[in-house]
From TrEMBL:
Keywords: Acyltransferase, Transferase. Residues 158-298 form the N-acetyltransferase domain. This is N-acetyltransferase domain-containing protein. Transmembrane segments: none annotated. Residues 1-51 are annotated as: Disordered. PANTHER family: SEROTONIN N-ACETYLTRANSFERASE. Signal peptide: none annotated. One of its GO terms (molecular function) is aralkylamine N-acetyltransferase activity.
């Protein structure tokens, strides 16, 4: 003779009761995963067993007179579940919370240092500025040739399907910069030296006049362009790029400060990112009217 528990439509919970105890009820147990109405043994689920005991103890009110359909307990309106019982919970209690989509999701962006091969892409990005404030193609080529390590770009690569070739990445935002010995951005630092292809950077002359363009010995990084193409403005690309750039310079410990120019309506954007407003700038590039801003955190280790 074999012993064991066979599937039953009703499972009886027995206990010692006195005459004042409520009558015992039988509890049908159904499979939560298959959706079948066939009964299963209560031993298959610890949660089901606890539920059966709770109903037998009179903690859960399923009486026909409960017209509101609300389950009431003597204590709280919830049941504590042990860690070991998590596997018995319904699948929808364990679904991860999906992150909220952002405007950047469609771009699949990545950050990369620029090179002279990106000059035409940078010319396109510079179209975000008014024409009289744009960096010329020759200046872009000069900066990407002499100091490409001071540049940074955000590229976008569209999502590809399994049948497509890897799509070409598109430059959507960039930072272009040079070094200067001056404590802030100057007209000289924004200049283009003559015969720059044959000449290296030079030291200030005897009169202390700053040479044009990039100066290897400069302790200030002068950001001359932070631009985002018009169709992707308003998505936080500029903020993302500048924060990544500042952190990169700080981690590399290659300069004392980062300086840039801004029109008055954009000053709060930069001050919120840790730049100090040093007041009106003497730079006349693009018609003047600029404000000088400098990073408030020293990038060189103390």
């Amino acid at each position: 003779m074999t012993t064991g528990t066979s599937p039953m439509a009703d499972v009886h919970i027995e206990r010692d009761v006195d005459a004042s105890s409520p009558p015992l009820r039988t509890i049908p147990i159904s499979s939560p995963t298959s959706g079948s109405t066939q009964p299963i043994p209560i031993q298959q689920s610890r949660i089901a067993e606890r539920s059966a005991v709770a109903q037998a103890d009179g903690l859960v009110n399923n009486s026909p007179g409960d017209t509101d359909g609300v389950f009431e307990t003597d204590d709280d309106d919830f049941v504590a579940v042990d860690h070991d019982d998590v596997a018995d919970c319904a699948w929808y209690f364990r679904q991860p919370t999906l992150p909220k989509p952002t405007p950047l999701d469609e771009l699949h962006p990545f950050v990369q240092i620029l090179s002279a091969s990106n000059v035409d892409d940078c010319v396109h990005v510079e179209s975000a500025f008014p024409e009289h404030e744009r960096c010329s193609r020759e200046k872009i080529l000069y900066r990407l040739t002499k100091c490409p390590e001071l540049s940074l770009g955000i590229f976008s690569r569209p999502r590809m399907t399994s049948n497509e070739e890897k799509p070409e990445a598109t430059l959507v935002a960039h930072i272009l910069a040079t070094r200067t010995p001056a404590p802030a951005v100057s007209d000289a630092s924004m200049g283009l030296p003559e015969n720059w292809r044959e000449r290296s950077s030079t030291l200030p002359d005897a009169a202390g006049v700053e040479p044009l363009g990039h100066q290897d010995q400069g302790s200030t990084i002068a950001v001359h362009s932070l631009a985002v193409i018009p169709e992707h403005q308003g998505k936080g690309l500029g903020k993302t790029l500048l924060k990544a750039y500042v952190q990169r310079i700080k981690d590399a410990r290659i300069a004392d400060r980062i300086a840039l120019l801004s029109h008055d309506h954009l000053v709060p954007f930069y001050t919120n990112l840790g730049f100090k407003n040093c007041g009106p700038s003497e730079c006349t590039f693009g018609g003047g009217g600029w404000y000088s801003l400098v990073s408030t955190t020293t990038c060189i280790a103390p």
